[in-house]
Amino acid sequence: MVVPVNEPLLGDRELELVSQCIRTGWISSSGRFIEEFEQRWAGYCGRRHGVAVCNGTVALQLAVAALDLSPGDEVIVPTFTIISCATAITLSGAVPVLVDADPETWCMDVDQVASKITPRSRAIMPVHIYGHPVDMDALGALAARHELAIVEDAAEAHGSELLSGRASEARWRRCGSFGRMSCFSFYANKPVTTGEGGMVLTDEEALAQRLRSLRNLCFHPGRRFAHDELGFNARFTNLQAALGVAQLERIDEIVARKRWIGRSYVERLTGIPGLQLPVERSWAHNIYWMFGVVLDEATGLDAAAFAERLLACGVETRPFFLGLHEQPALRRLGLFAGQRYPVAERLARQGLYLPSGLALSAEQIDTVCAAVREVLA
Ligand SMILES: Cc1ncc(COP(=O)(O)O)c(C=O)c1O
Q: 309-343: per-residue pLDDT in tens?
């Protein structure tokens, strides 16, 4: 039996609430669970408004669309992230401007952001990679100084926290509570999953209204089937929201379980030569969305060879992101010519993540760690 890279943990409560949708016929984009899910998730993240959409990629598209960027405006984004960040920016007519990753947290290197700010800069899109928060205080100060909007991609950071504010007033804040908007994914490998799904959070009432309009084709409020603006069909369903509501009833348990999985791996894998593990900065609570490891080149293995050997031992893995600057689809648009980001390039070649789903058992974690030790022995 292979240990799968992800297996969701769904229970009777999910079945009960989804069944309610089926029994009552509220299966589409109206129904009480949608608003309940939006309000509960916004509240959990310390935000005023939530707009649920069909996936995390579309959440980013709506958020960037709501910034009303002009062609040639620039958005600063880490190169080490999913392509969804770049598609949201390029589809809006704006240009992604890249920064390299921090070699330890794997998040955007905040120190590099200042050197990428130009008169065309309009926004920054930090991404909390694999569940470790970006240093949002440092980034927020920079954004404020240059009047840049922050759109937080917290797709992988459900329940991750960071200590924010000056020493005496510092308090733990959840990822997704910073910037003008924050975006989430609820894909099946996310701690809270609705199968497919996403959400944009904001504290601004008018922005929330705009996002709701963009989500539903920008129907004119006074005349059905009249449209003043081109929108999206990004609607979310009551069926999916029912799944989400059931999980938010036990969100603390879900986050605690993710952190337990992360700590269990750290305990068992610390000290293996040539194997870099995820970190947790003193100001951060990492939820270890996916437990990533990076191999030193001195092991003689790259991530692809390591993955093959782990699979032979019954352990499924996934490679790390390929940097945006190495994406053929983006290079063909004429982007990033000649640009190099050595940290992201190394992570892409040498990094992979181990099984990390909520259904992972202690025995499976032992199996995975034994396989890692055997391959690297
Ligand atoms: C950082 C990040 N942003 C956005 C997304 C896109 O989410 P979705 O798969 O729901 O479209 C993902 C997906 O895993 C992600 O990891």
A: 999 999 999 999 999 999 999 999 999 999 999 99
Give the SS3 label for residue 115.
Answer: helix
pLDDT of residue 185: 98
**What pLDDT shows up at residue 341?**
98
Would residue 148 be called left, alpha or beta, if left means φ above 0 and alpha means ψ between -120 and 50 degrees?
beta
Q: Which residues contact 284 (CB under 8 A, 6 or more apart)?
A: 105, 132, 133, 160, 161, 162, 163
Task: Enter the tokens of residue 289.
Answer: 């969305």
Per-residue pLDDT of 116-173, as tens digits, reads 999 999 999 999 999 999 999 999 999 999 999 999 999 999 999 999 998 889 999 9
Nearest to 296 by CA among 100, 78, 80, 103: 103
Instruction: State if residue 79 touches ligand 1 by the CB under 6 angstroms criterion.
Output: no
The C-alpha atoms of residue 144 and residue 149 are separated, in whole angstroms, by: 8
pLDDT, residue 338, reads 95
User: Which segments in the chain show pLDDT lower than 50?
Assistant: none
- Find the 108 Cα to ligand 1 centroid distance in Å: 16
Cα→Cα distances 27→21, 35, 66, 186, 233, Å:
6, 14, 28, 18, 16
Q: Is the CB of 237 under 6 A from ligand 1?
A: no
The three-class DSSP label of residue 14 is: helix
- Give buried/exposed letters for 215-233 (b at 16+ CB in 10 A, else e): bebbeeeeeeeeeeeebbe
Strands 161-164 and 284-285: antiparallel
User: Using a 6 Å cutoff on CB, does residue 152 contact ligand 1?
Assistant: no
